[in-house]
Amino acid sequence: MPVSSRKSLLALWLAVPVIAALAGIALVGSWAVRPAAISVAEAEPSVTPPAPTPATLAVPAGFTPDQTRHIQEIIKDYLIANPEIFLDVQTALEEKLERQQAEKLRVAIAENAAEIYRQPDAAVAGNPNGDITVVEFFDYNCGYCKRGLHDVIRLVESDPNVRVVFKELPILSKGSAEATRVALAARMQGRYWDMHRAMLGAKGHMDEAAALRIAEKLGLDMEKLKQDMASAEVTAEVARVEALAKKMGVNGTPHFLIGDRAIPGAPEDLFQQLTKHVGELRKQGCTYC
Fold it and tell me: Is 50 among the domain residues?
């Protein structure tokens, strides 16, 4: 075999892992890159995807048809013999996407910090003058929000210097939007935290009727409550939080923000994560919260 041919073959074999990795990235990318979780209100009806067609690996120009076919066969054999490469590439891609998302979040928090953490007349629990603020976007009909309630209460009761701000994000149903207006009206009587705990802790679907029954049991002024529910102040607050959530990319509940950090959802160790972030930011100092 001529020297030039041997060199070409060697170069081809050395290129196989690289080409295989690129092929893996292309394939895994289509699996790993998924849109963020969306609310029920935004979800579209499921559609049965079309049957997949056999994939053809693209080979850079400059090879003859026979060389192209041989390269494709080599790549296929390499990937079949080393399928773990897909897991390695997928892991690397997910880590990269997480880093990018974290950076976008930090930028978004910096640009909207005052509205997130220090909005006047915000719905607050805990110490109104606390040194660290935790923010929660939530929906009264969100099962995970209900599950996380115990951890939020525990945080407020165990840390006398923490301040929790609630951002009403009623994205799941018409009933959620109705319940939000009742809760915000209760805030105008200084009873937001009582209503929040009772409504989020109640069983069954939460809507205006259910929320009003809770308010009556708690002894609120019902005539004033109903007037405040329809007030421009309540309407403005609902619109303000909706706009903020869009700017922040928050499209699911619950979603917690602490400083420049986020906890999406309600993990089993939510309380531990919250106290960890609060403790770390308290030591480091928090520009925003």
Answer: no
pLDDT tens digits for 85-98?
A: 888 888 888 888 77
Name which of 3-12, 15-24, 151-160, 237-246 the model is least confident about. 3-12
CB atoms within 10 A of CB 117: 22
Q: Is the dihedral of CA 65, 70, 75, 80 positive or negative?
A: positive
159 and 247: one domain? yes
pLDDT per position as a tens digit, 165-188: 999 999 999 999 999 999 999 999
pTM of the model: 0.69
- Quote the number of domains for the chain: 2
Question: Cβ(132)–Cβ(162) under 8 Å?
Answer: yes
Range of the domain at 96: 1-35+61-112
Report residue 22 as tokens. Answer: 């690129």
Residue type, 108: A
Q: CB neighbours of 167 closer than 8 A, spacing ≥ 6?
A: 123, 135, 136, 137, 138, 241, 244, 245
Q: Are 241 and 167 in contact (CB under 8 A)?
A: yes
| Interhelix angle 192-201/208-217, nearest 10 degrees | 120
| Within-domain flag for 184 | yes
The three-state secondary structure class of 33 is: coil
212 domain residue, yes or no: yes
**Domain CATH number, residue 213:** 3.40.30.10
| 26 found inside a domain | yes
DSSP character at residue 172: S
